[in-house]
Design a protein that fits this description.
The protein is an alpha+beta fold. It has helices at residues 2-25, 44-49, 72-85, 129-151, 170-176, 194-203, 255-305, 309-341, 353-363, 365-370, 390-406, 453-459, 465-475; strands at residues 30-35, 38-42, 92-97, 103-115, 118-127, 155-160, 165-168, 212-221, 227-238, 244-253, 349-351, 374-379, 386-388, 413-421, 424-431, 480-485, 489-497. The strands form 4 sheets. A 5-stranded antiparallel β-sheet has the order 2-1-5-4-3.
């Protein structure tokens, strides 16, 4: 009975060994056994993997002949550990060298075994060369994509479903002035202005239903506290169940673009205003040239028939005043044209400014009396001479005094003063007139500008006077300015260089 049981066990053992032998022999994986550093067994798949026609070409050869030199130490250490521990080693990747010299990538598991009573190691090998090549190609492709992603002119960032930044390109990093580690993992709202943060918190929940949002504008805050405006296109990402998992956003800095657009709008408005101004200029200049002629003509006709000498002189005086006014207007137009073309040549000399002020004020005395206006002239004692052109200096003074009269009220006051300030002499002409609105002050010296179009009809003028004055003063090397309060009067001041001895 015992013999029968022994025979059954022997048969079962032989049957089991045969099944194992066939399993190893026909395995799609390369299986080899090496003992004392040499190959003692290789299955068919192992022989094919190593480029051998049969296992006989490999049997007896040193195992290290088939291991790439870069992995010799790794393999020796693994074989020693496998024998010492008596259990299978971990799966590792290494490189083998085939008989034809080709290097292949493999995955290897080492299992302790015996061969003819001697310690041995069984290795199971899988060729992963194709997979490694695919992985390398994928890495290369990802690197190229990442390079394109990071070097793109547009900003890219990705958020999770909580609005946290999970990725961004280098363009985004540079735009906000942080390093990438300071960005990833933070809410996008950390980089938005207060207003844009409010808009984001309002819009982000809507992305659960909307696939895209385009042409959004948000203002970012840089690390240094400065801001810039960006145009955003947002794409939502959903799971199969329709749940939002995050967003991908393309942004572009449009700060300069908006500035240019604003400048273009302003330019368009200015051009439109200039077009309107052109029509007003023609109408105003025509009116200003015609009115004095009409007044003079009417006054002369009446004077011819007037027998009363006193009234006749008044009418003749009116005609002279009207023609003088026309001469001033024509002079302004000519000088404005010459100054604009840069052909007005000025000859400078040393001039007594105090004497000129007194002289010009005396010219206007009849007008002051007629309008019941008070005048004061304050000239600093020992005031030095100025370097100026006599004719143009008189033109400057007449124009400014005439403005102070024209825009003043009956019974008003005009104060003139001159004093030395460093290397220049400052002249101030102050009045108690209608004043100039604060928003109009920056343009008061522009050519053809009138602070209020209604003043053209009420007070007359072409809008050239102050422009010509400014250009003449600057041609003298001086500066002009104005201070004014609407309804309280104006204070014009200009400088002229002190004449050299």
């Amino acid at each position: 009975m015992k013999n029968e049981q022994k025979n059954i066990k022997d048969e079962m053992s032989e049957e089991s060994e045969e099944k194992y032998r066939k399993l190893v022999e026909f395995s799609p994986y390369g299986i080899a056994i090496h003992s004392r550093g040499r190959v003692v067994y290789v299955n068919a798949s192992g022989a094919e993997l190593m480029g051998a026609k049969s296992a006989d070409e490999l049997i007896g050869k040193p195992m290290m002949d088939f291991v790439h030199p870069d992995y010799h130490e790794v393999v020796k250490k693994r074989a020693q550990e496998t024998q010492e521990r008596g259990n299978a080693g971990r799966l590792i990747e290494e490189k083998f060298v085939r008989l034809d010299g080709q290097v292949i990538d493999v995955e290897v598991v080492a299992i302790p075994s015996t061969h003819q009573g001697e310690p041995a190691t069984q290795v199971i090998v899988q060729n992963i060369t194709d997979r490694k090549q695919a992985e390398e190609a994928l890495k290369e492709s990802e690197a190229k994509y990442r390079n394109l992603y990071d070097s793109a002119p547009d900003m890219y960032h990705s958020l999770n479903n909580e609005g946290i930044i999970v990725d961004c390109n280098e363009t985004w990093v540079k735009a906000v002035g942080y390093i990438k580690d300071e960005i990833i993992g933070r809410p996008l709202t950390d980089f938005l202005t207060k207003e844009s943060k409010t808009l984001f918190e309002k819009d982000f929940p809507k992305l659960n239903k909307e696939k895209t949002r385009i042409n959004l504008e948000r203002e970012y805050v840089r690390k240094d506290g400065s801001t810039f405006l960006a145009s955003l296109n947002v794409i939502s990402e959903f799971e199969n169940g329709g749940t939002l998992i995050g967003t991908k956003t393309i942004s572009r800095d449009v700060t300069e673009q908006r500035k240019i657009e604003g400048a273009l709008k302003t330019a368009y408005t200015d051009l439109k205003s200039l077009d309107e101004l052109k029509g007003n200029i023609i109408a105003n200049v025509t009116h200003e040239l015609r009115t004095p002629i009409t007044i003079a003509e009417s006054a002369l006709e009446l004077a011819m028939d007037e027998e009363d000498e006193k009234k006749k002189k008044e009418l003749l005086g009116m005609a002279i005043e009207a023609l003088t006014r026309q001469n001033t207007i024509v002079g302004d137009l000519i000088e404005a044209s010459q100054l604009g073309m840069g052909i007005l040549e000025l000859e400078f000399e040393s001039i007594d400014l105090g004497h000129n002020l007194d002289s010009i004020v005396a010219e206007f005395e009849p007008v002051f009396i007629k309008r019941e206006m008070k005048t004061e002239v304050h000239i600093e004692k020992g005031l030095p001479s100025v370097r100026a052109n006599q004719k143009q200096l008189e033109h400057i003074l007449r124009n400014l005094i005439n403005n102070s009269i024209k825009f003043n009220k009956k019974g008003g006051k005009i104060t003139l003063s001159a004093a030395k300030k460093g290397k220049v002499v400052e002249v101030v002409i102050k009045d108690t007139g209608i004043g100039i609105p604060k928003d109009k002050l920056p343009k008061i010296f522009d050519r053809f500008y009138q602070a209020d179009s209604s003043t053209v009809r009420v007070y007359g003028g072409t809008g050239l006077g102050l422009s010509v004055v400014r250009d003449l003063i600057e041609a003298h090397g001086g500066e002009i300015g104005v201070e004014s309060r609407e309804g309280k009067g104006s204070r014009f001041f200009f400088t002229l260089p002190v004449a050299r001895d």
